[in-house]
Amino acid sequence: MIDVKVPVLAESIPDATLLEWKKQPGDAVDQDELLIEVETDKVVLEVLAPKAGVLKEIVKGNGETVVSAELIAKIDENGAVAKPAVEKAQAESAAKDKPAKEAESKPKEKRKSEPEPSAREAREPATQDSDLSPAVRKLVAEHRLDPSKIKGTGRGGRIVKSDVLEFVEEQGKATPAGEKPAPAPGPSAKPPPSAKPPATGERTERRQPMSRLRQRIAERLVQSQQTAAILTTFNELNMQPVMDLRSRYKETFEKTHGVRLGFMSFFAKAAVRALKKFPEVNAFIEGTEIVYHDYYDIGIAVGSPRGLVVPVLRDVNKLSFAEIEQGINDFATRAQSGGLSIDELTGGTFTISNGGVFGSLLSTPILNPPQSAILGMHKTQPRPMVEDGEIVVRPMMYLALSYDHRIVDGREAVQFLVTIKESLEDPGRMLLEV
Known about the structure:
Helix content: 25-40%
Distance between the termini: 65 Å
Order of helices and strands: EEEEEEEEHHHHHHEHHEEEEEEHEEEEHH
Radius of gyration: 30 Å
Shape: globular
Number of helices: 11
């Protein structure tokens, strides 16, 4: 008998939640086949079958809270598929073959009089309720839908929640074939007492439990607002020098390093230069002490289907531009598939958030506790600027630095942002460290 356990969780993660079992007791499983996903407040972890065999017992069910390395199921390595499962499969196969055999035994004249199944019925097997997850089954029942008419986009054509919601939305927009709108009533016409109000414009509500990640985000944001004296200072940046440098070398850079040259590597390098100059921005408060860091681990905020995550680039001061770009691209790709590890989302001494990719012109970012500051990037757009007494158009970006006023004074915060501005408007400063 092989034990299936929760993956080992980091010390900062006390527990996790089981999502939905992909297999049931009696089902055969292959080695490394996905059994269930475990949701933490940082990432979703996959629990794979350690050995091939038969899932003998599920110890912890869907939605239960579990801790690190806890037993959740057992696999019989030498077991056979349970008889009920085999008998069920045989019964379903016999049920499918029965109409065909009966049709062959009947006279041809009688078969001609029988109605033929529609093309859709002949083409698509009916979806069984047992194939649906509890959430999907509930939605189907609430809207009185036929699952066989819903196209599934999940694994193996399985219907997921978004498929049902999309189908309901399409049904609401569609007009049934052959149906004509009812004539408008005259001025004196009144609806009969039993008439129901029109279905259009219905005020509906949906309730959905928050994911552990969203709960954690909410908890940390409230914690940040309640425990830190947050203040934000702003400046504006002329992006022309960085854009010119990137345009000049982007093709050579990509051929040499195998990765595209973006803007984030410039900002990460500029941040390190400013953090060295103002170490309190790179420090934490713990009780009545200030903890200074002589290393520079920068969190890069990345959007994912589950919410905002902040993977951390370690020792950015030791990384080249190419290594920074490769690290950011890797984070962005794995954030979409939920492939980031817990260690990659833990720690960090400073954070950079780029709301400009979503069109944000200006914002006040919130601290990522226990960090003392966060840099907010925004949308670059052409604006008229005065240079040497003349009006010129430049690609400008607003920068925002939110900081904890308990540890960072306003003067240091403003000078920190000015240092980043100077570094990016004259990139040679980062090379010469002046």
